[in-house]
Write a structure and sequence with these properties.
It is built from eleven helices and six strands. By secondary structure, it is mostly helical.
Length: 302
């Protein structure tokens, strides 16, 4: 039930302000092939018509359009938010410095491990639409890259543990004598470390796999953990990403464009009496079914 509803469409003042100017069109838009990774934005509030971003069903007026050009395909720049771009630039610089250090030290295994980790990160972020290009194979490819990264970086991780045991021998002795006790003591810190991944998967945010990769690979750095946490707390995607025209009059049924004045989208939110439907910006009247033809009984005989 809608509060204050009395037969007329509610106002919803916080959502009716026209913060954007939708490109109006008085003709039927061209046909479009909808793809989750190539046509829809990451939050599924916008779809790409080949020239610009257009709204989907439920896109609020205050939602900003994603950037166009090369930025719409590069992770960190696709949303247009300042904090994402700053973190992306820092991350790219850090990865480049790490790769350069590994190459300078002639550590081939470490260098290849860092390359596979970078490839895994870009695959999870769907950089340049790679997920849609390889289709259902992207998940097995991600698992293969993760396994290869672990194998290549395992010697360095083992060497780090050995150095830690040499500096703190008491801890290693306790691990050998009471492994269950030490594992229990480490469970809470490990859970806190993986908290962004848990939140992202439970909330099913658009960039949940990217948040998981950043959390696991770069969580030891403060920036990486905070970036993963921010991704896990982002807005959920649009559950009904039905493409609309710029003026929100036409909607895409999956095979053709339909005029909403004749037939509104059946999945749109409606008032209790079904007389009005919500397009993301305003309430619009639903089409009134034609009156049934009169019968002989209603006309009478006289």
């Amino acid at each position: 039930p809608l509060p204050g509803y009395a037969g007329t469409p509610p106002t919803r003042r916080g959502r009716e302000g026209f913060g954007l100017r939708d490109r109006c069109s008085d003709r039927v838009p061209g046909s479009v092939k909808i793809s989750r990774n190539q046509t829809l934005s990451r939050d599924r509030f916008w779809w790409w018509d080949g020239h610009s971003w257009q709204p989907t069903l439920g896109t609020p007026a205050q939602a900003g359009r994603p950037p166009s050009g090369w930025r719409r395909r590069v992770p960190g720049f696709r949303r247009g938010s300042a904090w994402r771009m700053v973190v992306a630039v820092l991350g790219y610089l850090g990865i480049a410095a790490t790769l350069a250090t590994g190459l300078a030290n002639l550590n081939l295994a470490g260098f290849l491990g860092e390359l596979t980790a970078l490839a895994l990160l870009l695959l999870a972020a769907d950089a340049f639409g790679v997920q849609s290009r390889i289709g259902i194979l992207w998940a097995p490819a991600a698992l293969a890259l993760a396994a290869l990264t672990v194998l290549l970086l395992a010697p360095e991780v083992s060497h780090g543990f050995q150095q830690g045991c040499q500096s703190r021998p008491g801890t290693c002795e306790a691990w050998k004598e009471q492994p269950g006790y030490v594992a229990g003591r480490l469970a809470i810190p490990l859970l806190l470390y993986l908290l962004p991944t848990v939140i992202a998967l439970v909330r099913a945010v658009p960039d949940r796999w990217l948040a998981a990769c950043i959390n696991v690979l770069f969580g030891l750095t403060c920036i990486g953990w905070l970036a993963a946490l921010a991704l896990s707390l982002e807005r959920r995607g649009n559950p009904v990403p039905v493409p609309l025209s710029g003026d929100r009059r036409w909607w895409w049924s999956g095979s053709r464009w339909i005029d909403s004045t004749a037939m509104p989208p059946p999945m749109a939110a409606r008032t209790p009496d079904g007389a009005w439907w919500w397009n993301g910006v305003e309430w619009r009247p639903a089409a009134t079914p034609p009156a049934s033809a009169p019968t002989v009984a209603t006309l009478g005989t006289g």
